[in-house]
Design a protein that fits this description.
CATH class: Alpha Beta
Structural class: alpha+beta
Mean pLDDT: 95
Order of helices and strands: HHEEHEEEE
Number of domains: 1
Largest sheet: 6 strands, antiparallel
Radius of gyration: 15 Å
Oligomer: single chain
Length: 150
Amino acid sequence: MEASTRLMYFQSQIGQTLDKTPSAAGNWLAGKLLEIDHHHIKVQYTVRPEMCNPGKVLHGGVASLMLDDVIGMGNFVAGSEFLMTSINLNVDFLSSAQAGEVLEVTAKLIRSGSNLNHWEAIIRKESGKTVAKASSNLIKTHLKLVDLGF
């Protein structure tokens, strides 16, 4: 599947719950795709009780999963014919979110190289307050997406 075909598929999913993607962990998050293009993606999540830590706020690992999964989806349509995988994910946790709150995760491609892509992402509440922000580098593997069925 070419990058333009991958993008068209995801654009057809705008407004839909992302629960049938290749990412089982991402499917569990059950976000709603709001926007996507070759360099930008926005997904909405509702914090559920099972996403919270014992303090009843969004677990840092789940926030990191949201950031990593949105970056991964964005990178999937960014144009590489090869599978790319995260080599790091740097997250800053800046405020909390509670069950029932609606969050938006926005990611943008900052640099696209021949072997490495750099992304930045942010989680915001409906009020605009930042919950967490991240940066990540993804490196090209030797696996072609077409050989993986994409």
